[in-house]
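Mods, move this if it's the wrong board.
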Amino acid sequence: MIFRASRSLCYSFPIMKRTCFLLLTAIVLLASSLPIAAQKFLPKTIQFKGAPEYSDEELMAAAGLKKGTVLAYTDMKDHSQKLMDTGVFESLAFSFDGADLVYKLVPHADLYPIRLKNLPLTPGKELDETLHDRFPLYHGKVPGENGLLEGVRGALEEMLAAKGIKATVMATPYADEMLYKVTAMSFSIKAPPVRVGEIHLEGVSAEQQAKVKHLMDRIVKTDYDTENTAGNLERAFASFYVDEGYAAVKVHAERSGNPVAGGETIEVPFNVTIEEGRHYTLGSIILPSGAPLTAADINNAAGAVSYKSGNLSETLSVKEGLTLRTAVSFLMGQYKSKGYMDCVVTPHPQYDEAAGIVNYTLEVRPGPVYTMGKLTIENTADDLRAAMLAAWKLPASAVFDESALRSYFGKQDPRSALGQTFSSASCIYKLTRDNDAHTVDVSLRLEKKH
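Not the wrong board. Structure tokens:
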């Protein structure tokens, strides 16, 4: 028998734990009259309020509701629990006035985009659509635990199994190193390890075959990263070619075929296509005017005898054998020694086709100067900690120089007790940057050498 309710039914629960919900359910059922609890109703409409980012169709599917279905009061609660179990909502309340079944939703504030760490799957639109088909409330984000997070994890395992890969997928929070907060949920294969597999090269000239093969052999079997390996391959081969004088080289890397699941590893094959272009001789490397460090500073630090400068820019000395990569690396090291921890150096080539020369103008974005923050020394006895503090030469508020840490550990008198301690231990340091105060906290730790 179907009844029209003579009084409205309502239920509200910000469910934090499943056990709390079950207890509340028991209390409500005991408080309600048995005839009302057993009655069945046919809602004219089913409405959702408070979560406009989800369509009614998506919410109906996630709740397991269908229009035109007769529902008991317990059914309404069961469908509500299904919505809460997704982990997408902070709280939920529903009411039924005899005609309209209304759900009031409060979306969870902490939903995170997914990040594939080492899964040999292709992130993007197609993967998102596949997951949405299975989980109507998946809009590219998942909660921090249970519910939708666990559903997506299981679905990724099934996708890998379809490719012949039997592996357990783990979900862990991914923290942005610059923001110091969780910004995504990372899905990864813990075992077996996922490696870069066979690399098929195209476009390599006969003159470069041996050198390129040596580079390729060093890359194969390295850890695979879903988001970054293709780009890392492109940068590695391009950097090699630029050092060889092929300044206009173009490199494209992409996965090829299915991953190969062996007994001990999962190997992901790649195609790398190279357009070498012509060979150039390195001409000049030019700093922009007004840079915090001048070419004179850098050339003198590098041991160069001469340099030349102009009104608008300064030119780094180009020694025999100098490559763009070593010049940029040294330049960044000099900037960071002056506290410019966020320094970014971008080379812009200018080609003299007639002479076969390439000159580079370096765009330098130094960022703010960082100073020394708090020093922490871990896991040491009081007397050793006191000796380490006494030997520390970078006081608070001084311009931070990471190279001072290497000097601190490596240049102690080997005859001293502190020097002997450092030589017999693994010396580890951790840097924690405060991007608002522009300070760097340093944590030192000594561990037994293996």
